[in-house]
Amino acid sequence: YWYIMFKRMFSYLISYVNVVNIGYQITEHSFKHNVPIVREALSNWADGEIRVGNLAEWKEAASKTRFGNRVADSNLWMDSSDYPIVGKSSTSRKSPQWSYKLNGVGRRYMALSNAHGHVLKLWGGYSPNVYDGDLITANKEYIESTFEGGVVLADNHFRSAGRGFKKVKYYTNIARRQLGQKRSRNSEVVEEGTGPLTREEEAFNREHQVARARVESPFGWMKTKFQALHKPWWESEEQLDYLIKYATAILNYKRNI
């Protein structure tokens, strides 16, 4: 998808050169050589396409989607994703770059979206060793002041940290473990108590799962549309950050049409 976009931009530049003599010829090879510069420029453009909005807008978007009674007031969605980068064979599992989700080297991003799937805030890239709950705790002041009144649907990686918020509510799925079960070293999941879930907890989990599934993950869309994300990233981490950022902005732009 990004390559097609670049090709269109290149065609435009060629047609422009045919009208105005700039003193030298622009070739497709030259344009490809400057792709990193174009990515950075598109990343700057993305700043205007990724905007927070306000509580009234979040509620309006959510009002058109029917949820179960237990999560009926939800108006925001939060999720993270890891993208692979090259270097698996030469990187230790103890490295900050190691992603247990990917079983390889990666870089993590987190998005906060509304019910239309528009991304309101993008975090990243950062180390995949940073737990989702730790990230929102580190950004608690910003999240509570910027998204006050928001009701966020997220997975149970956010469960413990979400309890500490007062101006933003987090709905996370409920997980229980049997007595004696230990948390794995690479798991972010915080499970509580012992024994099976109650009927009420099971009902909540079903409604929570359905509500989360009704809003398409922005990261799933990116991986489908951008071929460069189908394999480990070999350029600089900064260039990957540019790509993820403007891919997010393109997603917002398309959903505004």
Structural notes for this entry:
Residues 12-24 and 179-186 have low confidence and may be disordered. Helix 7 (159-162) links the parallel strand 5 and strand 6. With 257 residues, the chain is of the alpha/beta class. The chain has 10 helices and 6 strands; from the N terminus they run ααααββββααβαβααα. Helix 3 (35-46) crosses helix 10. The chain has helices at 2-19, 28-33, 35-46, 55-63, 132-138, 140-146, 159-162, 199-213, 218-225, 237-256, and strands at residues 76-84, 98-99, 104-113, 119-126, 151-154, 169-172. Strands 1, 2, 3, 4, 5 and 6 form a 6-stranded mixed β-sheet that branches.
SSE layout and pairings?
Layout: H1 2-19, H2 28-33, H3 35-46, H4 55-63, E1 76-84, E2 98-99, E3 104-113, E4 119-126, H5 132-138, H6 140-146, E5 151-154, H7 159-162, E6 169-172, H8 199-213, H9 218-225, H10 237-256
Parallel strand pairs: 1-5, 5-6
Antiparallel strand pairs: 1-3, 2-3, 3-4
| Distinct helical segment count | 10
Largest sheet: 6 strands, mixed
- What overall geometry do the principal axes of the alpha carbons give? globular
Strand content: 5-15%
Count all strands and give the number: 6
Helical content band:
40-55%
Structural class of the helix and strand makeup?
Answer: alpha/beta
The overall pLDDT, averaged over residues, is 82
Over the alpha carbons, how many angstroms does the gyration radius reach? 21 Å
Distance between the termini: 18 Å
Contiguous uncertain segments of 5+ residues: 12-24, 179-186
